[in-house]
């Protein structure tokens, strides 16, 4: 590729590219080339060398054959060349496009604007993008970026398309020609160009001339993937013959893409813009117009229906006659002639507005037929309509358009014409949907583009007085840290619900985005808790969602972004708590929206918040869905949140795109459980049961009821056992198993193994703490050796319980020393010391971009190599590239051998397995 344009000819080329709204970082794909006799400073490339690169064009001495020199003599005047990439083989393609300064004419006498290497199969245009443009396309498409640190910038152009192939959630726009492709890339969309509308799947013949079955071009085939959206963006032409050709070409390619699992949509600006190509629209109206067209793209079926309608250009002086495909011919529209006698509309009362032009054009009839109504609304009203996808409302001049019983009178009053009310209604909705917009998503994108970032790691500290550094107690410090973490996760979840559900409304195959938590601000009345949420939302906020089972609540849920649940502190029954729990966990609701004929599934796009005054209000058994943040500040700074609002959401979008989690880890869940206990109604049984648990490794609900609650066995019912079970769950005793005692099998509860290893072990001098219950409880639930200052862990440990390094008690199998455990049922731990565990790194969570790509293992996870049966630890996940494609992990040998060339090795996922 050539350098920056410096000469007069380069400047002319730059002007041409700028006229198509092609940014400077994309312009380098186009280079000036000269003819044989032309002298252009700093340009040494010959057009002949690019067009005729194969030896078949040349004689044995290397010179071009005479027929090529004669037929292509016009390229001696120079022009520009655009090369494409071969994304299948990861190399530059020799094929490309040449635009001559003096084009030739074909046999029909038409100018040939673009030349391609003769007698060679055409290829799609895959252009080079730099790293900055790559990041912009990723942000615009809401797709996670790879770690670019290990990728040399020189290979960005190929790595970018490799990344595109791996991310089927990124839509791809297919357009015509190199300049339109470059213009869409400049607008931050992933775009591929065709040299002609038929060249995505060109006709092919066998050696005997028999037509072959159509197939996608090999390069396009590489982009086909299950779930990928292909958006066609061809020129909007008003010639019936051209419309028919474009329709057939799109249908042909659509069938091939759909066979690969892709979804199809089409961009259309018919009746909205006069410009023919998308680059012309980009140059004339800016990138916002391109964004609008992408947002308003049509399904293939809807686009086909639109193309069968008559065309009437908005803003033209007179309607354009188009032969529409209809069952009966449409009467030609009469143009206004002032010399004609004015015809009054036939009405019983004078019109409030005078519309002589419509009275004349349509003859003042009371009822328009549907074809006339369609053209009338397209010409007079369509430009004023739009559709709010969040509220599902038609807007007129940017305001909510109330279309109820007064629609027909309004239409008559406004325009002096009437038609069937149902036809008016449907036609207005149809044209409004052609200009649909997603206000919350667009606002989040605006924040990300324009706002100065505000940290979302310390929101609770700055607004609510929850500063971990001011806490002296470690437990309170962890809670204060978790308050800040909860707000950050809630903000990211609000972004996720919008971005993941955008353009998926009514999709029966989409099961929604999981967000089942509520951010609750707890504090005195009048502090501005609800006002803070409202200022943060900035619109589409509902602060009065009452009965969650009411029909109006469902519509409010799907018409707002952030909803405040009223009366959380008024939930006084387990039944009401269970109802709310089910409501929060639902991801998709099925109902019929306004303007629709039947009900469809609609994924939720909203998140929940709450505000309470009392300190004890949680009644659910787990309460994990309520993230409570106590407000310590005397008053919340509402003015500050209004100022920082855009920057906060910009940081939340960044965090979402970086793959940060919006749900807690297992460690964070433990802290949340402790926080929830501070606000939960306390069961009077909990405190004595908690004391009892300190003395036992495993417990049985019935024994607790007999020993702690002093209940007779005959009086114990199912409800009592459930009550104890819920207390145990709340205290973290969640693991269950069966043991044999006195010849009987009983079910017991114990804490998860990881918590037992970390807990403090009592010394021998502390054994007297058992004495006060020993008389009543006996040794039930304690190991036989507890009186001799030894304790044991549960039997069901990994590898059947290890008694010594290298041997397994239950299997005749060698076990590596690094996996030797202490405190198993066969290996007692002395009470006078802390339980010891080998200090292994904590297993990390698999980042989202890797889990989406099919990676199953995380960093610091211990695995076994299948081929050697040796144990390894995952040290690193691969960057985007060949190792990413093959799902390879950088693994460290847990027991290095002298024959190992290195302590680490890249091992493919297929050669690794989990340890049972």
Brief account:
With 916 residues, the protein is α/β, with parallel strands linked by helices. It folds into 5 domains: 1-120, no CATH class; 125-308, no CATH class; 439-662, Rossmann fold; 752-838, no CATH class; 848-914, SH3 type barrels (Roll).
Please provide a written account of the structure:
It is a single chain. This protein has 916 residues and is of the alpha/beta class. It folds into 5 domains: 1-120, no CATH class; 125-308, no CATH class; 439-662, Rossmann fold, CATH 3.40.50; 752-838, no CATH class; 848-914, SH3 type barrels (Roll). Helix content is 33%, strand content 14%. The chain has a 5-stranded mixed beta sheet, with helices on both faces. A hairpin with a 4-residue loop joins strand 9 and strand 10 (393-396).
Query: What name does the CATH topology of the largest domain carry?
Result: Rossmann fold
**Which class best fits the helix and strand makeup?**
alpha/beta
Distance between the termini: 55 Å
Portion in beta strands: 5-15%
Shape: globular
Quick one: how many beta strands? 29
Number of helices: 31
Q: What radius of gyration results from the CA coordinates?
A: 35 Å
User: How many individual domains?
Assistant: 5
Physical arrangement of strands within the biggest beta sheet: 5-4-6-7-8
In this structure, how is the largest beta sheet organized?
Answer: 5 strands, mixed
CATH class of the largest domain, named Alpha Beta
Determine the fraction of residues in helical runs and give it as a percent range: 25-40%
Question: Which CATH architecture of the largest domain is right?
Answer: 3-Layer(aba) Sandwich
Mean pLDDT over the full residue set: 76
Return residue spans where pLDDT drops below 50 for at least 5 consecutive residues.
1-10, 312-363, 754-840
């Amino acid at each position: 590729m050539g350098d920056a344009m410096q000469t007069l000819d380069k400047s002319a080329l730059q002007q041409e590219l700028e006229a198509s709204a092609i940014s400077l970082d994309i312009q380098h794909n186009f280079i000036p080339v000269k003819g044989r006799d032309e002298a252009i400073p700093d340009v040494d490339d010959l057009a002949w060398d690019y067009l005729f690169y194969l030896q078949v064009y040349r004689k044995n001495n290397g010179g071009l054959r005479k027929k090529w020199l004669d037929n292509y003599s016009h390229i001696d005047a120079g022009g520009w060349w655009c090369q494409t990439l071969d994304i299948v083989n990861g190399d530059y393609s020799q094929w490309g496009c040449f635009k001559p300064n003096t084009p030739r004419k074909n046999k029909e006498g038409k100018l040939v604007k673009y030349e391609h290497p003769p007698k060679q199969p055409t290829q799609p245009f895959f252009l080079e993008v730099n790293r900055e443009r790559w990041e912009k396309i990723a942000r615009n498409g809401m797709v996670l970026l790879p770690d670019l640190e290990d990728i040399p910038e020189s290979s960005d152009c190929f790595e970018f398309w490799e990344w595109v192939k791996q991310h089927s959630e990124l839509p791809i726009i297919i357009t015509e020609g190199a300049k339109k492709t470059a213009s869409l890339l400049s607008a931050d969309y992933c775009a591929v160009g065709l040299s002609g509308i038929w060249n995505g799947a060109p006709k092919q013949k066998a050696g005997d001339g028999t037509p072959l079955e159509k197939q996608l071009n090999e390069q396009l085939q590489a982009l086909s993937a299950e779930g990928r959206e292909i958006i066609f963006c061809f020129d909007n032409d008003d010639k019936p013959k051209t419309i028919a050709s474009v329709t057939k070409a799109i249908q042909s390619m659509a069938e091939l893409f759909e066979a690969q699992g892709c979804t199809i949509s089409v961009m259309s600006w018919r009746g909205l813009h006069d410009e023919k190509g998308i680059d012309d629209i980009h140059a004339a109206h800016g990138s916002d117009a391109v964004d609008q067209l992408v947002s308003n793209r049509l399904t293939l079926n809807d686009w086909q229906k639109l193309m069968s309608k008559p065309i009437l250009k908005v803003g033209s002086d007179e309607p354009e006659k188009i032969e529409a495909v209809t069952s009966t011919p449409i009467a030609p529209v009469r143009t206004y002639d002032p010399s004609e006698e004015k015809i009054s509309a036939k009405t019983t009362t004078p019109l409030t507005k005078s519309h002589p032009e419509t009275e004349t054009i349509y003859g003042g009839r009371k009822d328009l037929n549907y074809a006339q109504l369609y053209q009338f609304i397209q010409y007079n009203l369509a430009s004023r309509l739009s559709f709010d996808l969040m509220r599902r409302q038609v807007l007129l001049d940017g305001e909510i358009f109330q279309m109820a019983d007064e629609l027909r009178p309004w239409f008559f009053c406004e325009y002096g014409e009437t038609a069937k009310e149902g036809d008016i209604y449907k036609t207005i909705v149809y044209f409004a949907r052609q200009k649909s917009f997603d206000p919350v998503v667009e606002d989040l994108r605006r924040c990300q583009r324009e706002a100065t970032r505000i940290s979302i790691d310390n929101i609770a500290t700055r607004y609510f007085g929850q500063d971990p550094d001011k806490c002296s107690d470690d437990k309170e410090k962890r809670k204060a840290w978790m308050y800040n973490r909860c707000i950050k996760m809630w903000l990211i979840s609000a972004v996720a619900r919008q971005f993941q559900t955008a353009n998926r409304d009514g999709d029966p195959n989409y099961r929604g985005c999981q967000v089942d938590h509520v951010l609750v601000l707890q504090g005195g009345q009048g502090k501005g808790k609800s006002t803070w949420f409202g200022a943060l939302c900035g619109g589409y906020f509902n602060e009065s969602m009452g009965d969650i089972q009411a029909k109006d609540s469902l519509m409010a849920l799907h018409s707002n972004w952030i909803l405040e649940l009223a009366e959380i502190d008024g939930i006084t029954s387990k039944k009401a708590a269970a109802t709310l729990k089910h409501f929060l966990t639902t991801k998709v609701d099925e109902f019929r929206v306004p303007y629709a004929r039947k009900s469809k599934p609609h994924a939720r796009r909203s998140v929940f918040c709450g505000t309470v005054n009392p300190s004890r209000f949680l009644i659910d058994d787990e309460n994990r869905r309520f993230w409570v943040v106590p407000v310590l500040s005397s008053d919340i700074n509402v003015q500050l949140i209004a100022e920082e609002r855009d920057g906060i959401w910009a940081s939340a979008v960044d965090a979402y795109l970086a793959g940060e989690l919006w749900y807690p880890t297992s460690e964070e869940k433990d802290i949340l459980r402790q926080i929830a206990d501070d606000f939960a109604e306390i069961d009077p049984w909990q405190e004595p049961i908690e004391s009892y648990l300190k003395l036992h490794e495993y417990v049985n609900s019935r024994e607790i009821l007999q020993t702690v609650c002093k209940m007779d066995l005959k009086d114990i019912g199912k409800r009592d056992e459930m009550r104890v079970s819920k207390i145990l769950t709340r205290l973290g005793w969640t693991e269950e198993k069966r043991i044999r005692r006195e010849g009987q099998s009983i079910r017991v509860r114990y804490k998860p193994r990881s918590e037992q290893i970390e807990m403090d072990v009592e010394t021998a001098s502390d054994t007297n703490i058992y004495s006060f219950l020993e008389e009543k409880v006996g040794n039930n639930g304690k190991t036989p050796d507890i009186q001799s200052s030894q304790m044991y862990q549960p039997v069901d440990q990994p590898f059947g319980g290890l008694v010594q390094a290298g041997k397994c008690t239950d299997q005749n199998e060698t076990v590596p020393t690094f996996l030797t455990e202490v405190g198993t049922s066969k290996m007692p731990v002395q009470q006078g010391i802390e339980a010891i565990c080998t200090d292994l790194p904590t297993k990390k969570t698999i980042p989202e971009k890797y889990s989406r790509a099919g990676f199953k293992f995380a960093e610091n996870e211990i695995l076994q190599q299948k081929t050697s049966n040796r144990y390894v630890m995952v040290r690193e996940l691969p960057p985007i590239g060949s190792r990413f494609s093959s799902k390879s992990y950088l693994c460290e040998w847990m027991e290095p051998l002298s024959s190992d060339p290195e302590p680490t090795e890249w091992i493919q996922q297929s050669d690794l397995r989990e340890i049972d």
